[in-house]
Amino acid sequence: MKLFSANIEDLRTLYITNLKKALDMEQKITDALPNMIEKATDPQLATAFRDHLRQSEGHVANVESLLRKTTGDAGTVTCKAISGLVTEAEDSIKDASDPSIRDITLIACGQQVEHHEIAVYGTLRTWATILGLTDDARILESILNEEKAADKLLSSISDGVNMQAAA
Ligand SMILES: [Fe+2]
Ligand SMILES: [Fe+2]
């Protein structure tokens, strides 16, 4: 992709807006995870959510510091996608009374969130690279890797839980 200087300014604005959306997204995820931990029956699943809550708190801090460095403040822009995913997750969990079904519902909802985060951080990392913000790109890449690992872990836990739900 070839960008001219006017495009670079536009991309910089787009980058900052989407960093602010990522901050709102992470704050909403850290608010939603305690309920998911509480609703999980499988101990491995509860631990995975608990560990990812700690990582997500780190993501909030990381994105906040990227924003402070670039703009001087850490304001947010509403991430409508995560609001939708969290609402949908709450509805689905309410509908699932059987513990195994609830666990696979929690995993499905968790993976939808992780996939959204993977798309968000993949894009932000690429934009930071184009803008020559190598430190930002490195931090975003490390967040991206944690989201990918969380998604993978949920996939492997789901193998065991799915078997129980089918039994
Ligand atoms: Fe995250
Ligand atoms: Fe995540």
Automatic annotation (TrEMBL):
Source superkingdom: Bacteria
| Alphabetized SUPFAM superfamilies for the sequence | Ferritin-like (SSF47240)
Name the Pfam families on file.
DUF892
Q: Which PANTHER family match?
A: PROTEIN YCIF (PTHR30565)
Tell me what this protein is called: Ferritin-like metal-binding protein YciE
What is the source species? Edaphobacter modestus
